Amino acid sequence: MIAYVRGTVAGVTLSSAVVDVGGIGLELMATPNTLAGLRLGESVTLASSLVVREDSLTLFGFADDDEKQVFELVQTASGVGPKLAQALLAVLSPDGIRVAIAGDDVKSLTRVPGIGQKGAQRLILELKDRIGAPVAARIAAVSATPTWRDQVTQAIVGLGYNVKDAERAVDAVADQAGDAANVGLLLRAALQSLSRA
């Protein structure tokens, strides 16, 4: 398995790129979006997936690991080979594919050449439980984490208490926090619980 290819871009066509790796030119099939980001003579690192057939070895290149994972996952659905998986990624982004499958969006999937109504329904049926949430949604969930808990804990630690005491105080006032938690009031309540302890 070739996990990634790092080298100098030696050539770019409409459907592939040639990357010079230690004097050997490796041709990687890629989507137009990936190819658009490549410049002749520049150094590049592409995530890759090697597809082995009876009569050929074909290397597919991707801008990032997320694209590669979706490419490999959609091929586990019946009737989807590497060319169709690449066509999916050419029309929809990895998150676009996740959203279409999770939302039973047959119309978006049928925009891909080679996928008809039945093929789209089969993709949805076979991949819905395995495709996962869109990466953007996961990143938003993680980046939205500086919650009132974090803010109050950091404020208490900033006042000279240790982290364990600060977390205990935050847990003591957690039941007072609603949907729109007032950090100032929660901090005051947490400090009062610390002074009682």
Automatic annotation (TrEMBL):
Domain of life per record: Bacteria
Main location, first listed in the record: cytoplasm
Protein keywords: ATP-binding, Cytoplasm, DNA damage, DNA recombination, DNA repair, DNA-binding, Helicase, Hydrolase, Nucleotide-binding
Entry-linked SUPFAM superfamilies: DNA helicase RuvA subunit, C-terminal domain (SSF46929), Nucleic acid-binding proteins (SSF50249), RuvA domain 2-like (SSF47781)
Biological process terms in GO annotation: DNA recombination; DNA repair
One Gene Ontology cellular component annotation held by this UniProt entry: cytoplasm
Region (Domain III) residue spans: 144-197
UniProt-listed InterPro entries: DNA_helicase_Holl-junc_RuvA_I, Hlx-hairpin-Hlx_DNA-bd_motif, NA-bd_OB-fold, RuvA, RuvA_2-like, RuvA_C, RuvA_C_sf
Entry-linked Gene3D superfamilies: 5' to 3' exonuclease, C-terminal subdomain, DNA helicase RuvA subunit, C-terminal domain, Nucleic acid-binding proteins
UniProt subcellular location: Cytoplasm
Signal peptide: none
Helix-hairpin-helix DNA-binding motif class domain residues: 72-91, 107-126
Keyword Hydrolase among record annotations: yes
GO molecular function: ATP binding; four-way junction DNA binding; four-way junction helicase activity
Keyword Nucleotide-binding: yes
General function of this protein: The RuvA-RuvB-RuvC complex processes Holliday junction (HJ) DNA during genetic recombination and DNA repair, while the RuvA-RuvB complex plays an important role in the rescue of blocked DNA replication forks via replication fork reversal (RFR). RuvA specifically binds to HJ cruciform DNA, conferring on it an open structure. The RuvB hexamer acts as an ATP-dependent pump, pulling dsDNA into and through the RuvAB complex. HJ branch migration allows RuvC to scan DNA until it finds its consensus sequence, where it cleaves and resolves the cruciform DNA.
NCBIfam families linked to this entry: ruvA
Description of its domains: Has three domains with a flexible linker between the domains II and III and assumes an 'L' shape. Domain III is highly mobile and contacts RuvB.
Family: Belongs to the RuvA family.
Subunit structure, as described in the record: Homotetramer. Forms an RuvA(8)-RuvB(12)-Holliday junction (HJ) complex. HJ DNA is sandwiched between 2 RuvA tetramers; dsDNA enters through RuvA and exits via RuvB. An RuvB hexamer assembles on each DNA strand where it exits the tetramer. Each RuvB hexamer is contacted by two RuvA subunits (via domain III) on 2 adjacent RuvB subunits; this complex drives branch migration. In the full resolvosome a probable DNA-RuvA(4)-RuvB(12)-RuvC(2) complex forms which resolves the HJ.
HAMAP family reported for this sequence: DNA_HJ_migration_RuvA
Name of the protein: Holliday junction branch migration complex subunit RuvA
